[in-house]
């Protein structure tokens, strides 16, 4: 599956999970934004093992290291990896929330971290749209989120750090569920994924949806699920 489909799937599964659990019945707008951002980031994260992937291009040093020690759709596409990401996500949020004291240092820390993650999610979203909807090279260049935009986002997130602080838990949920959605969608591909590693190295595939074929239908279904769930959450 391509990055666009994975983002759509991550957001769809994240909002569906929230609705199913009923834990965020009266979800706020900022929580919704953090949920979508977390799910978008988590849905791309397994492809960190591919230097040419959307997330690999933004996290080049980490991607190069991971790609050197594992094959594409290897360890990062397993339930063990998903568990590690969940532990790191919720552990990191726990540390941030205990560290946060509303002083300038803690506000800047949250601003830098959240701004960077939102920057990746926005940039990958625009990157996936450009080839389809934008044909003018100058406009494509304008839509590139370069480092100045990262700084702007970090500053904005620092300013609104109190609002972000109250939405950190749902962000971690988004990352975790988004990561799992990536594995599930890749299981629809004939190549499959070794999801049960290290218990089994066998690649599990449950369908024959090839990358680049019928993905528009999958994305559309995911988007319909997301819209339906958001209507429930915000009403």
TrEMBL record:
It holds the Pfam family YdjM. Signal peptide: none annotated. Keywords: Hydrolase, Membrane, Transmembrane, Transmembrane helix. The chain crosses the membrane at residues 74-96, 108-126, 147-165, 171-197, 217-234. GO terms for molecular function: hydrolase activity. InterPro entries: YdjM-like (IPR007404). This is Predicted membrane-bound metal-dependent hydrolase (DUF457). It comes from Romboutsia hominis.
């Amino acid at each position: 599956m391509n990055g666009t489909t994975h983002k759509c799937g991550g957001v769809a599964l994240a909002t569906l999970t929230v609705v199913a659990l009923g834990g965020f019945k009266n979800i706020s707008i900022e929580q919704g934004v953090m949920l979508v951002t977390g799910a978008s980031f988590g849905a791309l994260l397994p492809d960190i093992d591919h230097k040419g992937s959307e997330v690999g291009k933004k996290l080049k040093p980490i991607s190069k290291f991971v790609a050197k020690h594992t094959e594409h759709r290897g360890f990062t596409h397993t339930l063990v990896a998903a568990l590690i990401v969940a532990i790191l996500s919720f552990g990191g949020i726990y540390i941030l929330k205990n560290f946060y004291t509303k002083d300038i240092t803690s506000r800047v820390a949250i601003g830098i971290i959240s701004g960077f993650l939102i920057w990746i999610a926005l940039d990958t979203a625009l990157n996936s749209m450009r080839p389809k909807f934008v044909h003018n090279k100058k406009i494509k260049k304008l839509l590139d989120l370069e480092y100045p935009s990262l700084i702007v986002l970090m500053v904005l997130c620092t300013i609104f750090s109190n609002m972000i602080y109250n939405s950190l838990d749902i962000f971690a949920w988004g990352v975790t569920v988004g990561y799992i959605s990536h594995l599930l969608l890749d299981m629809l591909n004939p190549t499959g994924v070794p999801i049960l590693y290290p218990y089994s190295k066998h690649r599990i595939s449950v369908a024959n949806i090839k990358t680049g074929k019928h993905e528009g239908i999958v994305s559309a279904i995911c988007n319909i699920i997301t819209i339906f769930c958001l209507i429930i959450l915000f009403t």
